[in-house]
TrEMBL record:
<dbReference type="InterPro" id="IPR049550">
    <property type="entry name" value="RecD_N"/>
</dbReference>
<comment type="similarity">
    <text>Belongs to the RecD family.</text>
</comment>
<feature type="domain" description="RecBCD enzyme subunit RecD N-terminal">
    <location>
        <begin position="11"/>
        <end position="129"/>
    </location>
</feature>
<dbReference type="InterPro" id="IPR027785">
    <property type="entry name" value="UvrD-like_helicase_C"/>
</dbReference>
<dbReference type="InterPro" id="IPR027417">
    <property type="entry name" value="P-loop_NTPase"/>
</dbReference>
<keyword id="KW-0378">Hydrolase</keyword>
<dbReference type="Pfam" id="PF13538">
    <property type="entry name" value="UvrD_C_2"/>
</dbReference>
<keyword id="KW-0227">DNA damage</keyword>
<keyword id="KW-0413">Isomerase</keyword>
<protein>
    <recommendedName>
        <fullName>RecBCD enzyme subunit RecD</fullName>
        <ecNumber>5.6.2.3</ecNumber>
    </recommendedName>
</protein>
<keyword id="KW-0238">DNA-binding</keyword>
<dbReference type="GO" id="GO:0009338">
    <property type="term" value="C:exodeoxyribonuclease V complex"/>
</dbReference>
<keyword id="KW-0269">Exonuclease</keyword>
<dbReference type="InterPro" id="IPR041851">
    <property type="entry name" value="RecD_N_sf"/>
</dbReference>
<feature type="binding site">
    <location>
        <begin position="195"/>
        <end position="202"/>
    </location>
    <ligand>
        <name>ATP</name>
    </ligand>
</feature>
<keyword id="KW-0234">DNA repair</keyword>
<keyword id="KW-0067">ATP-binding</keyword>
Length: 661
């Protein structure tokens, strides 16, 4: 039976307990019906497969992905290949393109838009979903389709054009994509602004908010009530800081009352929606919508499908929604890739009508550079903006060229480490150095870890020196410690294993203790100088998953966990009130999203792993402001560069379907 094979796969660690249990549930539901055996087996397999891919970030399965006969990525695992062959035998030659047709009679699978929770699997637009994902994706597609077809009111175009000209003085003959983005976002009550690091996303958004408030002023209407949100506390703090910086750089000719109408404080999306726990309904939802005219969501690529659905449901139709982020970064940990799916419409180019409008308000003619079909595109394409020019890095920046090269999947991206002074690579020694013959048992893992620890101890020395000199919780003392801590951050692509964050944190704190730089008895306890990362949201203390704090003890022996408050200050919390957390000398690349560090160090394992992808490298590189260092072998680096994440989602397809006349 298929279920027996799945049980063996679970025992071998190839699939999770959840995957197996879901398949077992479907097998149980089938019992009263006498389905032919291969079809019953197919349904059980697809249940486990849907769960497996959902946990890996996909929202659905496409039968076309299984035409080569591999399931659960077993083909690459020699010892599990016999189980793969058994699966294939049970399927008895059923081809993936027959799946949907053959499963029509199954009582536990729904088809089309007949959403029934009693049927935990759902075929929608030729793709197989877990019920929850299918419902969410359908809702997102419906809401975004409606929003993208609605036009927002605009003030008199010539006067609007004059105001934009003030904000974006013409500098050269090139297209000013920031100005295009503002004009595009003004016209719709939904827009997406994507761009790499330092492309001016925050500056663009600031100018957009100003223009919207200016329109209100011209209409003699109340200023817009604006909410700024981000997925994590850190990202919210960075957004608040960047908005403040952008406002400070505005031309002095801009009415200062308009500047005052831009909020300076961002909050997390969980907090805004009033999500207490996964099980309880959020405070804001369809029947109790958020009381804002405009919601700006930063780092939107980190938002998973379910949270995004909750957000859309909590917005009233008149609330303008702006998504900001970098489409090329890692997607959310949970399933969904909303930003990446939406940005696929960038390939279509703006409609002629939108180009004509842009020319009127920005004076820029895009017709000459549009090469795609502009007649029959999706309305969403006119809501998308892509910023192309980086203002943070100069043309010689290694960080910039490396990020671009990785993004393009270039096999030769490794060469930049030898050519750019802001990039350093520490390749792992794979063989015993020729002059050290006495040590016959060369261990590549230990050698690699030793190389990492040696450098990490040096990089943390300044911070630990500041910790050593820390004597009270005054603003000045905290500032010194946090500044030293934020200079460098070590990132790993993995959670577990010798090169995963758990073991690296353990090894590094132990080494720092041996060197006399840290003093603790139990590394699980809080100790002076221990950086921690919060792992769960807790509204009561306003601490959220991903927040980073420092455990500090003053000269009187009082201990507090201190956090940056995002406004240039600090807040402290009693150690007993901090939600579940872990050490943060090293953090995962996923958790580093939304943060930036002067010197960012990426640690890769000695051997390739399925989680190492192009997006993971890109995200790690773009966390660096002035220097990027890498511990890796060329082989593992190159295999990750060549592996873009394949996340199945049907959102793009559903949106296309809905826009058909
Ligand atoms: N058009 C421009 N002309 C000159 N400088 C600019 C322009 N746009 C942005 N900058 C500068 O580039 C830097 C980055 O801008 P901004 O913070 O808006 O970018 P971002 O895309 O939001 O960055 P991040 O990657 O941090 O999210 C800022 O110092 C900003 O002043």
């Amino acid at each position: 039976m298929m279920l027996t094979i799945l049980q063996q796969l679970q025992q071998a660690g190839a699939i999770s307990r959840l995957d197996y249990q879901f398949a077992a549930l479907i097998a149980e539901k089938q019992q009263p019906y006498a389905y032919p055996q291969p079809i019953a087996d197919l349904a059980v397999l697809l249940a486990a497969l849907s769960s497996y891919h959902s946990q890996n970030g996909s929202t659905c399965l496409s039968p076309t992905d299984f035409e080569h006969g591999d399931f659960f990525d077993l083909a690459m695992q020699t010892e599990l290949r016999p189980l793969l062959q058994q699966i294939q035998q049970h399927l008895n030659g059923i081809a993936p393109n027959q799946w949907q047709y053959l499963l029509q009679e199954q009582q536990h699978i729904a088809f089309g838009e007949q959403f029934e929770p009693a049927r935990p699997l759902l075929w929608l637009n030729g793709l197989l979903y877990l019920y929850r994902n299918g419902v969410d994706e359908q809702q997102v597609a419906q809401q975004l389709s409606q929003r993208s077809s609605q036009r927002a009111a605009l003030f008199e175009l010539p006067r609007l054009a004059a105001f934009l000209a003030q904000l974006f003085p013409a500098t050269d003959s090139q297209i000013d994509w920031q100005k295009i983005a503002v004009a595009t976002a003004l016209r719709h009550n939904f827009s997406v602004i994507s761009g790499g690091p330092g492309t001016g996303k925050t500056r663009t958004v600031c100018n957009l908010l100003l223009t919207l408030q200016w329109q209100q002023q011209q209409w003699q209407a109340e200023p817009l009530n604006i909410a700024l949100v981000a997925p994590t506390g850190k990202a919210a703090a960075r957004l608040s800081e960047s908005i403040g910086n952008s406002l400070a750089q505005l031309p002095s000719t801009i009415d200062h009352r308009l500047k005052q109408q831009i909020p300076l404080q961002a909050q997390t999306l969980h907090r805004l929606l009033g999500i207490q726990s996964e099980r309880r309904q959020a405070r804001y939802h369809q029947a109790n919508p958020l009381p804002f005219d405009l919601l700006l969501l930063d780092e939107a690529s980190m938002i998973d499908l379910n949270l995004f659905t909750q957000l859309l449901n909590a917005l009233s139709p008149h609330t303008r929604l702006i998504l900001l982020g970098d489409k090329d970064q890692l997607a959310s940990v949970e399933s969904g890739a909303v930003m990446a799916q939406l940005c696929q419409f960038l390939a279509q180019g703006y409609s002629r009508q939108h180009c004509a409008y842009l020319e009127q308000v920005t004076g820029q003619n895009l017709d000459t550079i549009q090469h795609e079909s502009v007649e029959h595109g999706h309305p969403i394409r006119d809501c998308l903006c892509f910023l192309r020019k980086s203002y943070r890095f100069d043309q010689n920046s290694g960080i910039k060229v490396l990020a671009e090269s990785v993004n393009l999947g270039r096999f030769d991206s490794w060469q930049w480490f030898a050519q750019k002074s802001d990039l350093t690579c520490y390749p792992y020694p794979l063989e015993q150095p020729a002059n050290t013959v006495e040590n016959r048992t060369f261990n590549p893992t230990l050698n690699a870890l030793e190389l990492i620890l040696k450098h990490a101890v040096n990089w943390y020395a300044d911070y630990l020196q500041a910790v050593h000199q820390f004597d009270d919780f005054s603003h000045e003392s905290l500032k010194t410690v946090f500044t030293a801590f934020n200079k460098v951050r070590l990132l790993s692509g993995l959670r577990s294993g010798e090169f995963g964050v758990e073991q690296l944190n353990m090894a590094l704190s132990e080494r720092l203790r041996q060197k006399g730089l840290l003093n603790f008895r139990q590394r699980h306890e809080g100790y002076h100088g221990k950086p921690i990362m919060v792992l769960q949201n807790d509204n009561a203390v306003a601490l959220y998953n991903g927040d980073i704090g420092l455990f500090l003890t003053d000269k009187q022996g009082n201990s507090r966990v201190c956090f940056e408050d995002g406004k240039g200050g600090f807040r402290d919390v009693s150690p007993s009130r901090v939600p579940p957390h872990e050490a943060a000398f090293v953090m995962t690349v996923h958790k580093s999203q939304g943060s930036e560090f002067a010197h960012t160090v990426l640690i890769l394992p000695l051997t390739a792993s399925p989680v190492l992808s192009r997006e993971l490298l890109y995200t790690a590189i773009t966390r660096a402001k002035t220097h990027f260092s890498l511990f890796a072998t060329q082989r593992v680096w190159q295999s990750a560069v060549q592996k873009p994440i394949l996340r199945r989602s049907g959102l793009y397809g559903l949106l296309n379907l809905m826009s058909r006349p």
